[in-house]
Here is the input.
Amino acid sequence: MEDGVFTTALLSSGLRLATPIILAALGGAFCSRAGVLNLALEGKMLLGAFVAIVFSYYLGSTALGIVVAVIFGGLLGLLFALLYLKYKVNLIILALGINLLIMEFTVYVMRILFGNVGSWSDPSIQRLPDYEIPILADIPGIGDIFSGYNAIVYFSWLMAIIGYVVLFHTKFGRHIRAVGENIEAAETLGINVTRVQVSALVIAGMLCALGGSFLSVGHLTLFTRNMSNGRGWVGVTAAIFGFQHPIGVFFTGLFFGLAEGFAVRIQNVTNWPPNLIQLLPHFATLIALILVALREKVNLFVNRSRFRQSLQRGEMRSTSAD
Here is the structure.
């Protein structure tokens, strides 16, 4: 029933809303695999959203606006790498500083350029067009869920596959994983650790900016203060919960997107208090973080049990030898 909660419209909305989270989480996964915990995903996404709509307006092309936003995201990733790797700025302080700086910077520039502070839009800005997938679009039910999205949504699906291939079936991916597992051993093997980490941070910046572009010109045609609204932080959670594996990250990001879509759907079909409904996606994030912590404790318990068993077997062998 389309007037219920669990409908094809909910799944379609969840896939759309998952897009920026998936892209940010994939960027975070690349960084984690390279040994860098990137907590600046939020700021990079916000910058992408702002740059995309501003340059779409001035260049008269949404596609060009998105390209410029992706370039700016890569440059911000490069700046992050420079400050962290060359000048040894504390990783957490640097990430928080960038997130706060970008939030205030976008508000300041929006005031300077357009005289607005809270939000801005212009009728000349065109939203990215949606595309129907041939044949698939004609299948009842399936077509309603998996067809009719814009290019950024489809790219996020493709990027999960590309990320898997790159990380596990290319030389560059092997270098990333080697650096993340043991930097000293990677250096001994002749791997340029700095180059690998810089590359991962630039890729993450570009993916986050693309996710931000989806928010401002892919899903809507406006920019609002703090438009990313915590999605970068959710991306960090999704990367951890998905084991930094592109396919796991994709489905984790999809889960968070569905949680956000569920909150929107509930608001449309029930009389629940809006403030309570807005907490649902954040509640899902909290549950995921709790599960991550429990998973780590279980792994620690299992490893300790195996260690004790190996010690006991060693003692039994020594006793038998005596």
Notes: The domain at 8-278 is CATH 1.10.3470 (ABC transporter involved in vitamin B12 uptake, BtuC).
